[in-house]
Hints:
31% of the residues lie in helices and 20% in strands. By secondary structure, it is of the alpha+beta class.
Amino acid sequence: MRRRTVSGGDLDQVLDTLAAATPAPAPAEAPAPAPAPAAARRPDEFDFELPRGYVDDEGRTHRTGTMRLATARDELRPQIDLRVKENPAYLSVVLLSQVITRLGTITDVHAGVVERMYATDVAFLQDFYRRINSEGHTHAAVTCPLCQGSFEVDLSGERLGES
């Protein structure tokens, strides 16, 4: 098997070239599904609420948001980013900026937005990313230390005591 080395090129260009070389699957016989309503959340997206919230340039605090499941491309793209090459810790900033689809009223979440978040919010998002991409959900089984009763909690950011 021949190994291909990519250096300095654009990952999108390389992936598109590889995709073009792969034969396209035959079209499905079934009709295309009806488009989802604009307000509906996609099945690969998960809502969250930040512990502190992102404060934008106008002083507005954005606490709720949506993160989608990561793709292989999302995981590969940061590897060619010069900022990540210079500082490997920057990988999580680039990765989070690619999978956060909405933060409050902000729909264009880029690395600059993630850079200006509080450290507690970034840590929360890193854990949230790990949870939805490795386990596929935001629920955790817990046991009450007093009564030993077992139940499930949603870790997507709801406040204690709220339903």
